[in-house]
Design brief:
This protein is of the alpha+beta class. The strands form 3 sheets. A 4-stranded antiparallel β-sheet has the order 1-2-5-6. The chain is elongated, with a radius of gyration of 19 Å.
Length: about 130
């Protein structure tokens, strides 16, 4: 049976801590971008892992993704809309992370970016086939 050496364990730990430090610095920089002066409340415009996330607050009514969804924010990744839904308990899900809930749309959008792994969002098709 292979046993890990102390040197290997320390090297792995150091590498993991470095990654966590970089991720924390990136998240802080992204959060700072979204709080820039002149940005309306509830609006996010940030770059996360090289992808542009834009969130604008929902309005009292209208259409979102081809169906009536009053009050939902518009979430875009690189200019393409991410279909989001709010659960009864106030948490958020998206078509990319349908089985994972998030406290707010910004964390949902960041998780979608990670899940996409560089892929582009495909347009959401609502309704049945003809």
């Amino acid at each position: 049976m292979n046993k890990i050496t102390r040197r290997q364990a320390l090297g792995t730990t150091a590498g993991a801590l470095t990654v966590l430090g970089i991720a924390g610095a990136t998240a802080h920089a992204a959060a700072t971008d979204s709080r820039a002066a002149g940005t309306p409340a509830g609006t996010v415009d940030e770059v996360y892992q090289g992808r542009r996330i834009q969130i604008s607050p929902g309005t009292g009514g209208g259409h979102h993704g081809g169906h009536h969804s009053p009050g939902l924010p518009t979430v875009k990744i690189d200019g393409r809309e991410l279909h989001v839904m709010q659960n009864a308990d106030g948490t958020w899900i998206s078509v990319v992370n349908h089985y994972e809930t998030f406290a707010e749309p910004a964390s949902l959008a960041r998780a979608a970016v990670r899940e996409l792994q560089g892929s582009q969002l495909a347009p959401m098709q609502m309704g049945g086939a003809a």
